[in-house]
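Example record for the data management plan.
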Amino acid sequence: MKSALFVVFFVASASAVPTFIRTESLSPDEKIVGGDQTDIELAPWQVSVQYNDRHICGGSIISTDYVVTAAHCTNGFNGNMMTIRFGTPYREIGGKMVGIRSIHQHPNYNSQLLDYDISLLYVTSRFILRGNVATISLPSSTTRWPPGTSALVSGWGKTAENGGSPLYLRSVTVKIVSESSCKDEYGESRITSRMLCAGVDGGGKDACQGDSGGPLVINNVLAGIVSWGYGCGDRRYPGVYSSVPALRGYIKKVTGI
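Corresponding structural encoding:
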């Protein structure tokens, strides 16, 4: 199995994590695999989760008070050192910044399996919604999408496992992969009911390091959260996302929405 690049966390207290998660390595100039440049008005819920003013992960605005991201983006981190940049297609330029009042990482998060890979970030001041800042709709807990359904994933992750390019937001269309097919590739025990898989035949389009925590969107509804995968755009292995329907109860419990 080909694994993605090793991720370095710049926090002494951070837990050890697998080498295939899609967190930023804090190196410059990286973006999504096989995608196109995307203006923020086309994904106004997209944010950059930052540590010491450096991009580490993506995230999505789900209310005027909350951002959702991956738990592996917050595991071992102090919220006082983290900020959210929003309203800009550049991950470290422009837009506005807001602090994080509290981190609500799923209590069942498993750093080895990347299960329950979700965190909710309560911001220090409310988002002012306008053309380039908007909330993303959430699905119900019973929502399901059939294999082959098109989904849009966006972020500032790498163009390839060793790729590098400008800091402008990118997006790419992938398709939902059945749970059984995903398990056939990754193994029965690796894919849980809290996960959703998406990719394309032949590979070449995918999320990658730096896209973790970002949105997988179907018809303007948040279907998944970028989580992990073997390689980036590998023809055999689809991307693995935290399933928002499966984790909808937790979102409701924390945020009330």
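Summary line stored alongside the record: Helices lie at 179-186, 248-255.
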